[in-house]
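Appendix B, Record 12. Input sequence as logged:
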Amino acid sequence: MPSLPKIPGEDRKEHKVFRDFGGINTQANRQGIADTQFSWIENVMPIGFANAKVVPAQTSTLQTHVATGYYYYQYNINGTSYTFVATTGGAAYQILATSPYTITTIAAAGTFSGTSTQIAQWKNERILIIDTNGYKSWDGTTLTSISNAVLSVTINQAGTGFTGRPTVVFSSGTAAATATVGVVNATLTAAGTGYAVGDVLTISGGTAGTAAQMRVTTVSGAGAITAFSIYLSGDYTAMPSNPASCTGGSGSAATFTLYFGLVLITVTNGGTYTTAPTITLSGGGGNGYSLTANISAAPSSGTTIATYSGRVWIGNGRTLNYSAPASYTDFSTISAGGNTIISDETLTSNINQLLTANNFLYFFGDDSVNVIADVRVSSGSTLFSNTNISASLGTTFPYAVDPYYRAIWFMNKSGVYAMFGATPKKMSEDLDGIFALIDFTKPVSAGTCYINNIFCFAVSFTYQDPDTGSRPVLCVYFDKKWFVASQGSTLRFIWTVSISGVDTLFGSDGQNVYQCFGNTSGNVSWKMVSKLFDDNVPYQDKQVTKFGVECTLPATVSQLTASMDSENQSQSYTLATTSYATWVNNSGATVLWTNNSSSVVSWLATGYTWFRQDVSMIGHYYGVTVTSTTPSFLIQGMMWQFEKRSLWGS
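Logged structural output:
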């Protein structure tokens, strides 16, 4: 019987090389993704062609705080970077963002609500803290209450006859203040001679922190003073005798009779008040004064805060409060502070988050985004535009909103979106399979950082892994690619700290703080799962006979394992390398090393090498899964040798 003709293309060795590394794609099944994509890629950054690098692990614990942290945010005071921590117990902490990571208590337990604290930076001199328990400031040393506090004291009448510095007494509460007594009026006792207009004369005598000064405004032909003004009131605890002599100027022998009154009341503790207390003075001998305590008009409650256009903006429910220009304490309408209630139906619930970026103030609702812009003062009132730019997309996750390049990125239950100008765009289609398995009852947060010197955006959440169970993961984006990272098995929160201009990602399990991607030598579990390839003939069997991994090895290599995969089976292997380090003694004999199981140990060389394996796998599709815990790997390619077999094979 004559043999059947050979089908062209069958029984012929072919090769497949996978080096054009894209990102992960969980939207389709493993057979349906693009040839450049991975079905899963974790802790490996697909930088580009023949260049996939294992990312660093997290560092060890840098600092530990008491109670469970639920909010972490960066700030900078006088050039030093810190992390603010709010805990469920109502305490707050400051952690230095660089070694030695010193921790400082900002507020004791019970100070804040334990659920709704946020901060914003004011210049680089302090942070402003909003909570449903009130509005406060922290300058790195002192926590000061602003809402419902005595903000300032107005001197209605300065009084007279003071012989010393009085004590300020408030009728109720814990407010405290200090009084400054100085010259409030004076008469010329002796005009002197030889003076010129503009001469400044310093009063001598008494006990002064700062001595009073007079400025000559007119003189006679002989240089006698004919008129003067109080140039500096001074600050006295004991008054000079009258008439008071002077020093300085171009003349001599001028004297003044001085009248001392209040020139300043400095609030040192604002206390907490619902109505303004009355103020009296004790000691100092003065009389005829009148003082008024000014209670702050700052909001007494809020859940989100930002600084923008020289003002403080505080969100509380649907109300947006704003301070007076160039002030973080004054919210009074007389100073152009105030508030507005967002009545638009596009905000279906409340303001969840405020964010300043790109010369706009963004506020996020559950399913909407608005921008505040064009802030100005007209006729004593602050005016601004409020424009809705998304009426269907917003977020309920306030800590998953972050600027990345010129876009505003945010995550909600349907994906990750970027706001480019007024247009939101979904950026996470490739993560749809992951989003279906996120536990949205757990914290969701976002940040930016540099990994392998590439600027990246990351979101953190709890993933219900079908293979290993619930665990925290990060999804990291750069250059139109996503990959998965794991930075600690108990990670709850991530945030960015700018250190010397470099965005650095930190993480916490709720008590222990560490740096993400900060340990280049620590073991990190990584995994690469290629597409299942069909070479455009999914109806034809392929028999894979070899596969290999091209890579550059680090200084120390642990086990590298792989599985050869088809659409219905997997075969696991410990990959061998073509490059071994051999130990030779002085006699030239090879020295064999054995482990605890008496097996011979081969020492893998470092640098460029091939891992390759003979296999026998038949299927319509083929691919590979590579795993290891070795850090600093550089994967350059995956290769297969196969033969095409029967068409329409089973």
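The chain has a mean pLDDT of 92.
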